[in-house]
Amino acid sequence: MQRFISSLPGFESKTRPVDRQIDIIATVVEFMSDKPNMPYTQAVIHEVQRHSNMIPMLGTHTNVEDIMVKGQNIPTGTMVFAQLWSILKNDSVFDESYKFNPNRYLQADGKTIDKAVLERTIPFSIGKRNCVGEGLARMELFLIFSALIQKYEFVPTAKIDLTPVWGAVLTAPPYTCQLIPQAA
Q: Where does this protein hold heme (predicted)?
């Protein structure tokens, strides 16, 4: 959640439509039942997860048979690391992948999530070894993000650098911002 919240001030102009969508859909508190009616909110959450992914590499795997990858033989028993950061930044489905653009997750009507793009967004990994807490995490991200955007405007007090700081997890350099309560 820290990496998620740290992205808000840097993308404030892109998250304001979420606030307007929340004002229209939700009265006081968002519920999971509101989620289908909030496609832009969902798109922003997916884009923050893609753009500001905090887990650069997944755990090790070992292939059980020889495999060819782009003409290169990977022999049986080789330890393989999935570099999730690279997948989320370099997949051709993400046009201009280094730009923060929630609209990439919406179809032309602006109301329907583009499932082809969503399926390529894998911040929780994929397959048998994906994150067991993914459902709970997605629910919490939606509810907490919606509540924060509804109640506060995140205003940076200085220029924000969202260049990832590499380590076991990716973080953003420290910065400060002001949280301005939204009018009720």
A: 131
In a domain? residue 67: no
Task: Examine the pLDDT at 147 and tell me if it is beyond 80.
Answer: yes
The reply to whether 60 falls in a domain is no
Percent of the chain with pLDDT over 70: 83
pLDDT of residue 72: 95
Residue 72 lies in a domain: no
The answer for residues whose C-beta is within 8 angstroms of residue 123's C-beta and 6 or more apart is: 49, 50, 53, 55, 84, 88
Measured between alpha carbons, how far is 97 from 93 in angstroms, rounded to an integer? 9
**Three-class DSSP category at 74:** strand
CA distances from 173 to 95, 136, 169 (A): 26, 27, 13
Distance CA 130, CA 125 (A): 5
The pTM score is 0.80
Domain harbouring 176, CATH code: 1.10.630.10
H helical segments located in 26-83 = 39-51
| Residue range of the domain that includes 10 | 2-55+85-181
Asked if pLDDT for residue 140 goes beyond 90, the answer is yes
pLDDT recorded at residue 17: 63
- Ligand-binding site membership of 131 (annotated): yes
